[in-house]
Amino acid sequence: MDEIEACGPADAEEEVALRVKWGSVTYAVELSPESTVADLKDRLFELTEVLPKRQKVIGLPGVSGRPACDSLLLSNLRIKQDQKVMLIGSREADISSVNALCAATAFSDVVNDLDIDYSEDDARTGANIIRHKEAYRRRLERRVETTDFRIMNAPREGKRLLVLDIDYTIFDCKSTAESISVLSRPGLHQFLASAYRHFDIVVWSQTSWRWLEAKLTELSMLFSTEYKLAFVLDRTAMFSVTSTRRGVERTHEVKALEIIWRKFPQWNQHNTLHVDDLSRNFALNPRYV
Ligand code: MG
Questions:
Q1: DSSP letters of 222-266?
Q2: How many whole angstroms separate alpha carbon 167 and alpha carbon 273?
Q3: Distance in Å, CA 282 to ligand 1 centroid
Q4: What is the predicted pLDDT for the residue at 187?
Q5: Ligand 1 centroid to 167 CA: how many Å?
Q6: Which SS3 state, helix, strand or coil, does residue 18 take?
Q7: pTM higher than 0.85, yes or no?
Q8: For the residues 162-167, what does the mean pLDDT come to?
Q9: How far is ligand 1, taken at its centre, from the CA of residue 112, in Å?
Q10: Helix residue ranges per DSSP H, the chain
Q11: Could you tell me the distance, in angstroms and rounded to a whole number, from the CA of residue 218 to the centre of ligand 1?
């Protein structure tokens, strides 16, 4: 359960109330309707010591589909009472210590064991054997029935399918930056424009639709004139399986492409490209080595 810290005056009914999630802490923040986005960032600086220039507030309603800029009044943003937003950004002291650590380890072999994932060796040796296949088949069938495909642009005839993850695939969601464009993968929009000539593009992220929409908006992926997204899928289209890695049993969720293929039979294992930083997400997909 997240820690909740209440901050700011609470007696004025007309105040704009937000719940700001920063790491594992959620702050209840109240500001006057005359406050701007910049004022919100100043308040968040008081609470977190993250400089406003390093703050990225994800989930604020935009204006005309564009991210909210600092000069906008909060009262113009159609913020719901106690709306949840996410703050991305680090304190200067934390950045300094990370930079020092990076410098110290720049030439050493650093093993990232923060996340459970398959290695290439696992894939080659079949160490990630999935058990309980019948149970997984039933779960898959349920997702086939219940998945909400948010169609944004109708699939085009004769195009292959590109399924893209967001976090750590096209968006570095934990680093700090003054602009979200710095956190997106270099050349992202050129890549998408190029891919769009041959592929219909789908985004599938292990997050809720609300955060998914906010990230796509911030990344300016919803309004390009050079490419369009066919649809997006969120975590509700995933389900959990248990597999083994190096003899250790793990339970994790998967992105089973068959859910898409059953809905859109023009796509299959021969014309789909799935790009994700976590290979465990592929665990139920056909494997070609
Ligand atoms: Mg990812």
A1: SS-SS--EEEEE-GGG-EEEEEEETTEEEEEEE--THHHHHH-TT
A2: 17
A3: 12
A4: 93
A5: 4
A6: strand
A7: no
A8: 94
A9: 15
A10: 37-48, 92-105, 120-125, 133-146, 180-183, 188-196, 209-218, 258-263
A11: 17
